[in-house]
């Protein structure tokens, strides 16, 4: 079956959420690494917990609440001087170095993003990074008021792109997202970057490995640049 | 409003899930602490993720999958010699030292457990620890095929006990459970033990603090033994 569209996760897959580290270290000296990691871990926990509590708040609010948690956890009371620059940084995350070349090499395919981010966050991110040059469709889970890996999120892709799920290659570095997308019925490529899953960081220990959720990806790649060859090989 | 029933969370609240540490260290020398913490963190993540994916598996299965993850994360391929003794330990967890005296002092109240555990796991745990002497009702989320903090879990309490939610004091040391129970409409006591929320462990950093989910507990106590006085003061 030909791949007619590539649908990318945004945070952690095309965009490096660890690129807030320098600013976190400048604002919380000696604690930037812990703040950055806790922030991301809690951000995801809160998407799951709020979905499960049936108390959806959008990703901008969840990201802010997770930042409050992370800052408090290192003994600092959250305040605008610290939190505003950090959360604003979420609109200016760096794309991974291999993102632009990969998207350029995939030109001619339908390229889309399916993300937990709000439409406003994603539009700002794409514009600020210039990736809007290649990504034609941006799909936010905000309209279904639940977060990945709820199947209703993945269910947004077929009507948005006008193609069937088996024609989609879903690309994510987040292992829970890989499991959710595969359970839904996409073909899935897991981007497992070198160094991910290490024992150096909480994030690496907890989220850098394959989940034991029973849905293995079709492909495991070590860089986005493996994608063009993988797509051509499937034809 | 008089408190007519106390409903306890089991794992982490009445029973010390860290009591598997000695066996984990014996089976994975030098790695027992990391395995124990990752196991518990992943166990909870998988309850949330499976609920969200609408792919419920029971808590015995989820606990086994989380153990596989934890063991693999420290570089060991899961095998029966390591995993069976550890998971069997989940039927023989130690109650916290203050659990028996607290339950004895609350005699005459309706005392119940609401837990993610399967009925079989909970019955074994209560029998093996002797807490079945005081706990008259054991409620497992297994019948609703979703995990806490989904509201359907807390919704099991009123029909099981024949009382209204505002007459319930829900007791948990798990901060996400505190948020879920409070959102549902129970009175809630958060057991925040001394040393919880420390920066020494991944578990302390991630789960030992109040969540930023907008539902503060009615009471924060540092030990279960604070409960009898708290209940009397409410009358």
CATH fold naming of the largest domain in chain A: Rossmann fold
Residues in helix, % of chain A = 40-55%
Order of helices and strands of chain A: EEHHHHEHEHEHHEHEHEH
Count of folded domains of chain A: 2
Distance between the termini of chain A: 8 Å
What value does the Rg of chain A take, in angstroms? 17 Å
CATH architecture of the largest domain in chain A: 3-Layer(aba) Sandwich
- Overall CATH class of the largest domain in chain A: Alpha Beta
Structural descriptors:
235 residues; 11 helices; two-stranded antiparallel sheet; alpha/beta; 6-stranded parallel beta sheet; Rossmann fold
Question: Could you characterize the architecture of this molecule?
Answer:
Two copies of one chain form a homodimer. Chain A is α/β, with parallel strands linked by helices and 235 residues long. Chain A folds into two domains: 5-16 and 92-233, Rossmann fold (3-Layer(aba) Sandwich); 17-90, Putative phosphatase, domain 2 (DNA polymerase, domain 1, Orthogonal Bundle), CATH 1.10.150.240. The first copy, chain A, has eleven helices and eight strands. Chain A has a six-stranded parallel sheet with strand order 5-4-1-6-7-8, with helices on both faces. In chain A, strands 2-3 form a two-stranded antiparallel ribbon. In chain A, helix 1 (21-27) crosses helix 2 (32-52) and helix 2 crosses helix 3 (59-73). The longest helix of chain A has 21 residues, at 32-52. The first copy, chain A, is globular. The termini of chain A are close together. The model of chain A has no long low-confidence stretch (mean pLDDT 95). At the A-B interface, helix 2, helix 3, helix 9 and helix 10 of A face helix 2, helix 3, helix 9 and helix 10 of B.
